[in-house]
């Protein structure tokens, strides 16, 4: 992981999105975490690690990608 990540994320929040949360992990530890910008579009509530974000149906896509990656690594079988 490069040292540019915090400044890159800060720049992204300033120019592209109101706020974001980002975390990079391995199986056993957190490598990096970031929360910045605003939790609301009006810019009155800061984004924190405790801010709840609505992912809605996107979690299905994330889960499918994780399952396919595990299958590719032969850590999970897709056979029923």
What would you note in describing this structure?
The chain has helices at 5-15, 58-72, and strands at 19-25, 30-37. With 80 residues, the chain is α+β, with helices and mostly antiparallel strands. The chain has one domain (5-72). The longest helix is centred in the last third of the chain and has 15 residues, at 58-72. The protein is elongated and about 50 Å long.
Keywords:
80 residues, alpha+beta, elongated
Main beta sheet: 2 strands, antiparallel
The strand line-up of the biggest sheet is 1-2
Mean pLDDT across every amino acid position: 91
Question: Count of helices?
Answer: 2
Number of strands: 2
Strand content: 15-25%
> Radius of gyration, rounded?
16 Å
First-to-last CA distance = 38 Å
Q: Helix proportion of residues, in percent?
A: 25-40%
Low-confidence segments: none
Structure classification:
alpha+beta
Q: What general form does the structure show? A: elongated
H/E series? HEEH
How many domains make up the 3D coordinates? 1
Give a summary of the structure in a few sentences.
This protein is α+β, with helices and mostly antiparallel strands.
List the helices and strands and how they pair.
Elements: H1 5-15, E1 19-25, E2 30-37, H2 58-72
Antiparallel strand pairs: 1-2
């Amino acid at each position: 992981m490069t040292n540019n990540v915090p400044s890159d994320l800060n720049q992204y929040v300033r120019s592209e999105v109101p706020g974001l949360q980002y975390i990079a992990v391995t199986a056993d530890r957190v490598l990096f975490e970031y929360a910045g910008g605003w939790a609301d579009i009006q810019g009155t509530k800061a984004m924190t690690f405790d801010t709840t974000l609505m992912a809605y149906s996107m979690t299905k896509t994330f889960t499918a990608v994780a399952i396919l990656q595990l299958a590719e690594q032969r850590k999970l079988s897709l056979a029923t």
